[in-house]
Amino acid sequence: MGRGQGRGGQRGPQVNYRVEIESRARREFLSLPPDVQARIIDAIDDLVTNPRPPGARRLVGRDGYRLRQGDYRILYMVEDNSRVVRVYRIGHRRDIYRGL
Questions:
Q1: N or C: which end of the chain has fewer CB within 10 A?
Q2: Which of 45, 44, 75 shows the shortest CA–CA distance to 59?
Q3: What pLDDT band is residue 5 in, cutting at 50, 70 and 90?
Q4: Residue 10: pLDDT above 70?
Q5: Whole-structure pTM over 0.70, yes or no?
Q6: Residue ranges per domain, the chain?
Q7: Which of 50, 68, 56 is nearest to 14 (CA)?
């Protein structure tokens, strides 16, 4: 067999994560404009297959990640052992880090 043959360019089976949105994040999401909601939904849907996408950054001084969507942020935790992504805040960048 030549180099790279026999694999078909595929990796192992993909393991999906379950996304849970906490009640506070749900309320924050519902208060956003519809166009922003659509972008947030797309970003959260992508977390199912990749909980740490290239744009995600670790939070400083606490556990978790932030994902940027324009002027808005999604704050979430990744629980690898149970395959859960827990979204706990969604909001504008000027407000999202207050009260953490």
A1: N
A2: 75
A3: very low
A4: no
A5: yes
A6: 18-92
A7: 50
- CA gap 57, 38 in Å, rounded: 21
Q: For domain 18-92, give the CATH superfamily.
A: RelE-like (3.30.2310.20)
For 41, phi and psi rounded to 5 degrees?
-60, -45
How is residue 17 written in tokens? 């994560």
Give the chain's mean pLDDT. 88
Residues 6+ apart with CB under 8 A from 75: 25, 59, 64, 65, 66, 87, 88, 89, 90, 96, 100
Q: Dihedral through CA 74, CA 80, CA 82, CA 88, nearest 10?
A: -20
Closest CA to 65 of 85, 95, 82: 85
* Dist CA 70 CA 79 (whole Å): 26
pLDDT digits (tens, 9 = 90+) for 28-38: 999 999 999 99
